[in-house]
């Protein structure tokens, strides 16, 4: 009986060892499968990330090309604007030049100086309106206090009265502003 017991114990030990081996093998297979699944998942993530990188690089290249085209287009447009900026102003001046040409022709044969004076006055007024339309205005100088930032003093004379000291007595050349910018300073005589 002892031998039967030992044989049974041996069978139990062997079957236990076999079960342990099977369990160990199953455990290793599960770990291997898990490692394979993790590797597949990582490869899939790497693949997705590579696709995202390629997509972002493509978008970046397109955006850079778009910006470069925009920059070139705006440079061309600016060059075109600069080239033709004065076109409208010159078109508006052409009728005034036509008036001057007619006046020069009529002066050759005219005997009525009053009509010539009136014609020149009309052309002058037309030109002044053209300047005002383009935001060019004459700088006022009559009886105005002298300001070195605005006026260019070319001479000083004794002031005729006490109130006219440091004021403009005469203007030898008109000054003009374009908007708020002085484009020509008036040349004036100042009373001292």
Protein architecture, described:
This protein folds into 3 domains: 1-84; 86-134; 136-192, Head domain of nucleotide exchange factor GrpE (Nucleotide Exchange Factor Grpe, Chain A, domain 2), CATH 2.30.22.10. 66% of the residues lie in helices and 14% in strands. The chain has helices at 2-84, 87-109, 113-133, and strands spanning 136-138, 152-157, 168-173, 176-178, 181-184, 187-191. The strands form 2 sheets. The chain has a 3-stranded antiparallel β-sheet with strand order 1-4-5. The chain has a 3-stranded mixed β-sheet with strand order 2-6-3, with no helix packed on it. Helix 2 packs antiparallel against helix 3. The termini are far apart.
Strand content: 5-15%
Major β-sheet strand ordering: 1-4-5
Mean pLDDT value: 86
- Please compute the radius of gyration using only Cα atoms: 49 Å
First-to-last CA distance: 148 Å
Give the total of beta strands. 6
**Biggest sheet descriptor:** 3 strands, antiparallel
Helical content, roughly? 55-70%
Order of helices and strands: HHHEEEEEE
- Total domains: 3
Principal-axis shape: rod-shaped
Q: Helix- and strand-based class?
A: alpha+beta
Number of helices, where a helix is a run of at least 4 consecutive DSSP H or I residues: 3
Low-pLDDT runs of 5+ residues are none
């Amino acid at each position: 009986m002892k031998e039967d017991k030992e044989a049974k114990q041996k069978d139990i030990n062997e079957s236990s060892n076999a079960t342990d081996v099977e369990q160990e093998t199953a455990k290793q297979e599960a770990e291997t499968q898990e490692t394979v699944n993790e590797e597949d998942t990582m490869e899939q993530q790497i693949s997705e990330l590579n696709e995202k990188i390629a997509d972002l690089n493509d978008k970046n290249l397109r955006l850079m090309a778009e910006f470069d085209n925009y920059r070139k287009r705006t440079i061309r447009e600016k060059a075109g604007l600069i080239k033709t900026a004065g076109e409208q102003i010159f078109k508006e001046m052409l009728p005034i030049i036509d008036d001057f040409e007619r006046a020069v022709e009529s002066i050759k044969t005219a005997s009525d100086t009053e009509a010539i004076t009136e014609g020149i006055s009309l052309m002058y007024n037309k030109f002044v309106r053209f300047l005002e339309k383009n935001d060019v205005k004459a700088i006022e100088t009559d009886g105005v206090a002298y300001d070195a930032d605005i006026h260019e003093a070319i001479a000083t004379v004794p002031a005729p009265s006490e109130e006219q000291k440091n004021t403009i007595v005469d203007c030898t050349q008109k000054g003009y502003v374009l908007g708020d910018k002085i484009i020509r300073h008036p040349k004036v005589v100042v009373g001292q």
